[in-house]
Design a protein that fits this description.
Elements: E1 2-3, E2 12-16, H1 19-28, E3 33-37, H2 41-53, E4 61-64, H3 66-75, H4 89-101, H5 116-130, H6 134-144, H7 151-172, H8 179-192, H9 196-201, E5 205-213, H10 218-231, E6 234-239, H11 244-255
Parallel strand pairs: 2-6, 3-4, 3-5, 5-6
Antiparallel strand pairs: 1-2
Helix pairs in contact: 3-8, 4-5, 4-7, 5-7, 6-7, 8-10
Pfam family, one: Halo_UvrD_like
Length: about 270
């Protein structure tokens, strides 16, 4: 079903458990190209299979994941886009180990776990919730302050440790720390070019559908936010039936930030 919500952007159509509307739209076709964003490859294959079974036309449909979009946007930033290289999880774990062993771990606050995998999990969790956006980090720290002592202090230390970890990783590589960091950089590029990078990278796209979403990270919301604000394309977000109602309630607060894609590490 399509869900209206007064606190969401007016041009965003939110669907919960309504995948059939996507399939109907793709089968019927429309002027221009519909870009189908699928963060999970398995869901992309499922949609493609159902379209084949329905003998839907292949023209006018393009599938991608958010990182694919990020790479193309950065490649069309007036021909001078930044690197699209990313380090992977294995590289991050190796760098975290080295941060601890060479003494530079002192730059990471006391809330960090000792084990590298636990450190990476902490970094990833805070990234998913906040995108390291200054406003979201402030809200998360404020929320931690409402917890009873001493858990409140521990929670704030873990938030700060995640930020320290991300900063230390950024200082150790010229590549993006993750695919998520690449997408954030592309969001800022789209915002800073006032949509020019989008029109160069995706000149024929008139509709974007974000599908197969069982959780909504901050970077996905920021990507939708900047597309609605600067790209002026019809945009649909398809949430899965089980988690969709909960995520729909969270979305307005996630959208409620200025400068989507901003991070505390840059002015």
């Amino acid at each position: 079903m399509s869900i209206p919500h007064a606190r969401l952007p007016a041009d965003l159509t939110l669907h919960v458990g309504d995948e059939e509307s996507l399939l109907e739209r793709l089968r019927d076709g429309s002027p221009g190209t519909e870009l189908v964003l699928t963060p999970v490859e398995l869901h992309r294959r499922n949609v493609q299979r159902r379209l084949r079974e329905a003998h839907a036309p292949k023209d006018g449909i393009e599938f991608a994941d958010p990182a694919d979009v990020g790479v193309r946007l950065l490649g069309h930033a007036d021909g001078l886009g930044p690197s699209t290289d990313c380090i992977d999880r294995i590289d991050r774990l190796s760098m975290v180990r080295s941060i601890h062993t060479d003494g530079s771990g002192s730059s990471i606050g006391p809330g960090a776990p000792e084990e590298p995998r636990a450190i990476e999990q902490l970094r990833t969790e805070i990234e998913n919730v906040t995108g390291f956006h200054p406003a979201r980090l402030r809200r998360l720290r404020d929320a931690a302050g409402t917890i009873d002592a001493p858990i409140d202090a521990d929670a704030r230390e873990r938030i700060d440790a995640a930020v320290d970890i991300e900063r230390s990783l950024r200082e150790r590589t010229d590549s993006h720390v993750s695919d998520v960091a690449l997408v954030r950089r592309a969001i800022r590029t789209l915002r800073d070019t006032d949509g020019t990078a989008w029109r160069s990278a995706f000149p024929d796209v008139t509709c974007v559908s974000f599908v197969g979403v069982s959780s909504v990270s901050a970077v996905y919301v920021d990507l939708l936010h900047v597309l609605l604000d600067r790209a002026s394309v019809e945009t649909h977000l398809h949430l899965r039936r089980g988690t969709g109602p909960y995520l729909a309630r969270r979305l307005p607060d996630l959208f409620d930030v200025d400068a989507p894609g901003a991070v505390v590490f840059e002015p």
